Amino acid sequence: MSSRFLPDVPLPLSTYVPGRTPRPVTEAPGNSAIAAAGNLLPFDPARWRDSRSFLRGVDLFNEGFYWEAHEEWEGLWHAAGRSGPTADLLKGLIKLAAAGVKAYEHRPAGVRRHAHRALELWRPFTPQMEVEPWRSLALATAWELASRAVVAAEALAGLPSPPPLAGLLGTYHPR
Q1: Cα separation of 132 and 84, whole Å?
Q2: Residue 113 near residue 119 (C-beta atoms within 8 A)
Q3: How many angstroms separate the Cα of 100 from the Cα of each of 30, 84, 139, 166?
Q4: For 33, 118, 136, 161, which has the most beta carbons within 10 A of its beta carbon?
Q5: Distances (CA, A) of 56 to 63, 92, 116, 169
Q6: How far apart are CA 62 and CA 15, in angstroms?
Q7: Which residues are within 8 A (CB) of 55 and not within 5 positions of it... i.e. 6 or more apart?
Q8: Distance (Å, rounded) from C-alpha 1 to C-alpha 62?
Q9: String of DSSP letters for 42-58
Q10: Could you give the residue ranges of the DSSP H alpha helices within the chain?
Q11: Within 10 Å of residue 172's Cβ, how many Cβ atoms?
């Protein structure tokens, strides 16, 4: 277990894995990304600590609730207008969470594809990763998680039945 940004917000009882676990019946906050976007303020990377939805996504991701983290961040992505630097930052996190879902599904090609896409989205930020707000957002850490996922997925892709990849991603901790 990792330290959480929002310990007062309960975690889901289980994570959704397509084809393996039941889809949640009730919509938790963030689960309807487009509807939620209308109620969210645009995400400001310089003020990430003020965004409960962003922090909720981080908590969900770090606890292995990748589908749910994806859904939480997707609302912010919609609120960001789905294009531009802030949207690309969020879409990269969404793709990293999707890689986690593919890990739970034991699909290395999906892990590789989504993690690689996260890296593509973050590539324009690489010269600035140690400059605020990207340094405190730990974009370099997210980059490392995605890079590690790509390498591990490539190593496992040729196996007839890849082992579980659930622990592949590690944790993401903005500071």
Answers
A1: 17
A2: no
A3: 18, 24, 17, 7
A4: 118
A5: 11, 16, 24, 18
A6: 12
A7: 5, 6, 48, 49
A8: 8
A9: PP-GGGGGG-HHHHHHH
A10: 33-37, 52-62, 66-79, 85-104, 108-122, 139-156
A11: 22
pLDDT tens track, the chain, 175 positions: 458 899 999 999 988 988 888 877 654 444 444 444 456 778 899 899 999 999 999 999 989 899 999 999 999 999 999 999 999 999 999 999 999 998 888 888 899 999 999 999 999 988 887 888 878 888 888 888 899 888 888 777 666 554 444 455 667 767 6
Whether 136 and 48 have beta carbons less than 8 Å apart is answered as yes
